[in-house]
Amino acid sequence: MTEVTRRAPLKRTPRPRDRKQQIVAAAGELFYRHGFHNVGTGQIADSVGITAGALYRHFKGKQDLLSHTLTEAFDQATRLVTQNPPRDLQDLIRRIASTAGERRYLGILWNREARFLSDDARAAMRERFFAFLDEFARQLRSTRPDLSAADADLLAWSALAVLTSPSYHGSSMDPGALVDLLEQMTLAACTTPLAHPSPTGSAPEPESPGLLPHGRREATLAAATRLFHDRGYQAVSMEDVGESVGISGAAIYKYFPRKADLLSAVIARASEPLQLGATRALARARDSREGLENLLDAYVEFALVHHDLVGILVAEVTNLPDEHRRDVRRAQHDYVAEWIRLIRETRPALDESQARFVVHAALTVINDVARTDHLRARPAVDDDLRSICRRILDVQL
């Protein structure tokens, strides 16, 4: 008679109480680093040590995860400005800066990935976003009676740009020091005196799409730029581009063998005036302070004129082939390095990490205002952008 070995009873590993929150945090980080379309549910599940099937017990899919990530962030930010009214403007900003410092991915997810939500989810997210922004602007006006509703709106957008600017670079900083820096830069932006054009001055002319170049290659690049900016690279086909210039999608392949090659050409075209403007700005400068001023002037002009290219540089670089993406990232790094060098020469007390956060805050304000139609149409918006960014660049730590 053989002995039967009894199996020990299986022990059920208890699920962590915060499993859902762990999944949301992991998804947010992966979407931020790799882009929504480049991340699978299996990858998200692996990152928190569960199966894809277990993930689907909590969420319907990637869109649902992205929606939860953004919803949680906006709802928390709104609670911070509506519950227990803040004592003053600095208290209000301090609360939001603490959350922004913990959620560095938020700017990228909102500006680059939210367009991949369903129509209903995107509409709900925009409602949350504008509810927060309107409440922030309302409280800003209560502390600055000199502001019109339009002025408060501009400063609220600028404040949010500062708070989300750490999303666009990987520099590290002590968490407490980061919150302090975000608070001081946001406060500087919100207390900026704004230009007040004469009431008799003319309003800006409405923008028109303009004419496309006659040459097929140039017309294709111009059309692709517009479509990639308006709809996003992933949502645009070669046939869409061809239709907009009156040729077949197949004819485009004569100039661009792949859609990724077309994107590479658009981004290369965006980089040319940017680099030329920087070179010209530095050549006219007599010292570092003037060089920084010239760079600021040049970038404001570039962003307001080429806002569609700015949108593509912000949102679509992750879709480039690896070799092109590395080249673009290197060029972007070199461009920002010029700003950092100049600001540190004018303010030697800043270390490189502080300077990088300050520079990215100013650039993000310009990028976000330039890409927002009603702000870009504001009279004297170029002067206001320069004023806001000077205060950010001069922030005292």
From TrEMBL:
SUPFAM superfamilies assigned = Homeodomain-like, Tetracyclin repressor-like, C-terminal domain
Residue ranges: DNA binding:
40-59, 237-256
> Which regions span the lipid bilayer?
none
Name a GO molecular-function annotation.
DNA-binding transcription factor activity
Q: Where is the HTH tetR-type domain?
A: 17-77, 214-274
List every stretch annotated Disordered.
194-214
Q: What is this protein's record name? A: TetR/AcrR family transcriptional regulator
